[in-house]
Amino acid sequence: VGAFANEESALNLAERLKVLFEDVTIVVHSMNTGEVFHRVRVSCSKTLSEAEKVEKRLTAMGFADAFVVRL
Asked: Contact, 33 vs 25, CB < 8 A?
């Protein structure tokens, strides 16, 4: 849903999304440049179809850049 350099921004978004979604996580990602991003992820869908439904829901909520990531 989003990636933030500021951890508090990621935490704030995650808290808002936890009210609406069952599985919200923050994953810390370190770049080769030393930059650190806090990625907010929503859902742990079992199928691509489920993931696409979550993606459409997020898009409708204003997260136009939401996309499915296979883990």
From this structure: no
Rounded-to-integer distance, Cα 52 and Cα 26, Å: 20
pTM: 0.83
Using DSSP bridges, classify how beta strands 24-30 and 2-4 pair: parallel, antiparallel or unpaired. unpaired
pLDDT confidence of residue 49: 94
- Token pair 């409708």 is found at 60
Are 42 and 54 a contacting pair, CB within 8 Å?
A: yes
Which of 26, 15, 17, 22 lies closest to 63 in space, CA to CA? 17
